[in-house]
Amino acid sequence: MTRTRSLAVLLGGVLLAGVLPALAFVTTSGTGQGSATTGTMQTVTVAAFVGGDTPSSALSPGGPVADVILRATNPNAFSVMVDSITGGGPITADPGHAGCTTTGVTFTAPVSPDITLPPGSTLLHLAGAAAMDATSLPACQGATFHIPVTLVVHR
Known about the structure:
9 strands; alpha+beta; 17% helix; 1 helix; disordered N terminus; three-stranded antiparallel sheet
């Protein structure tokens, strides 16, 4: 009888030891402190052509689409993600082609850009984003076109 009781007490102690840590884990709580700082994100800028940047394709009336080259400058100390790229106004020819009043040029922005801009300057190559239709005037031949765009970015 003594042996049975000792075994029962020992078994009860083992079961109780298995339950208490689980109970302590579930009911334990703690406190602490943390801190964070926020800063102001600086504006990312976009320039169409910078010395040395060249397109890999050219436009022609009714011809194939052409590439658009942008240079984005991220002045922040961290990378930003491009949420969207949209056209931002009328497309015009360079000053050397003043007679090009009807460009016939259109811009097709990427639908879901998956672009990360690290700090500094980044060349963005938007393949096939420009087209020229047959309404383009002959005075537009050889022109470089100003295509205003807007980038929306987030951290």
